[in-house]
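Support reply, case 0932

Customer input (verbatim):
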Amino acid sequence: MSSAVESAPRAQARTWDRLGIIAWSIVAIVTAMRAVAAYSVPITGDEAYYWEWSRHLALGYSDHPPGVAYTIFAFSWLGTNPFAVRIGFIVCGVIATIFAAKTATRLAGGNPRAGVVTALAITLTPLTSVAFGSASPDGPYLAAWAATLYCAVRAFGSHLRRDYVWLGVALGAVLLTRVLAVAMIFGVVMYALMPRRRYLWRDGLWLSFLVAGVLCVPFLIWNSTHGWATIAFALVSRHAQDWKWDRPLALYAVQAAAYSPGLWFGALLSIFYVRNAFLNWTAVPLIVLLTLLDVHEPVEIHWVFGAYLSLCVALGIVFVRLGARARIIWASVAAVPALILFPLIFVAAIEPGFVYEQFLRTGSTLRNTGGFEIFTVPSLAVDVRNMMEANDATVVTDGYGLSSTLDFYGGVPPVVIGYNAEGKEALRWYDADMQPRRILFVDKEALYPRPGHPEDKGRPEFVQQLDRACTRVTAGPTLGYEFHDSSGHMVPARLYFTTWCEGPRPHALRILQWDPRYLPPSERL
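Our regenerated output:
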């Protein structure tokens, strides 16, 4: 009888061990799939823009802290290709998953099963594969966030000064990835200010903040000498500001789809079921802030990444506390949608034409082929480079993404014009006072309204600026490119529009930059 009683826990342990092997195998497979997609998919505009940052290393940048640029630079020795740009972010995914799993294991009293569930939750979240398979600030942000969670839990448990130093390094790293990382600082401070935990400051938490501050000094100095550009962009210039009280509801609906419904709502429920003060302080304030901010201006779904990672740790702890039946129900609700959504992302990366055709069969449409345009840019870049060289022209665009991809694939020097706040970092990469012999303006939108195409309204503001900057403005060729994937499915032609600026007037580039010094007084902001 006793042997039968004793065999039940052993059988359960063996089951957990097998599930652990399966879970970590899934993590490895998904990581490999990210690598395949990173090698196969052309660089997007944002990725190429950050690649340009890595070629112009600085202590700070207008749009984000420098973490993304240094992540790309670390692997620049692999050459100029999509995989070399993205490999660092795949590594960030491995780092984030391991540190989050180790944090869950520690907080669950050394139970590795909590870590397994946390690792699986992070891996099966569709949007994290975008973060860890593409070059964006999110990859290093999540890796540093997870490292901070682990270092904090370790330091708070060991009370060792060296662990507090490592916590300071992690805090400094996360602050150098995204402005929203201040939510982690707030969470740690608030957690340690509770009366029964104030001893943490005497243990060495003050040292953590000292180390983090030292690491961030160069970035702060850069910002202080550049009009606090990064902070101003994050708080003011990124999005148009308008009050919409119902917008948070739409935000939560989109987040549920992007993170997978079962995982997203499970993460939110874990706030109440785990009741871990440290995890809640690093998650809940950020969620509340973004919900309130969304009323004032649009919030992007990935901004909540840090809070979500903290809650994935909580998910692991909750799961191992559930009864067997509850675990089966929750695992089904959480994993099944994720296992459906994730392969769709991978297939879209490898077989975009097939996915595009299935999308059209639903009766939906995309203007200008939507995100599928990235598969046409390599061909565009070669043609634009040939036009540039044949006509001794300077190529300009009003989009930092298009400009950077033309450089990545065609070696076309990036010259960005226009009035948008986003992408202003590109204005530092060329001499705006140079006098080009001829200017070729490449655009994704038609400069003038096109008959039969009511969606093309034209761009009268650019027509006006080109007339001011050029002696003569003439239409260039309209370039169109189809894309066929490996199975023969096609993405319809994406059109690009070109305009020639003949005889550029003095300060033509500054006029096209909307430089206030070269605008009529009535148009100066």
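We compared this against your earlier run and they match. Two observations from our side: The chain has 22 helices and four strands. The chain has two domains: 19-350, 369-523. Please reopen the case if you see a mismatch on your end.
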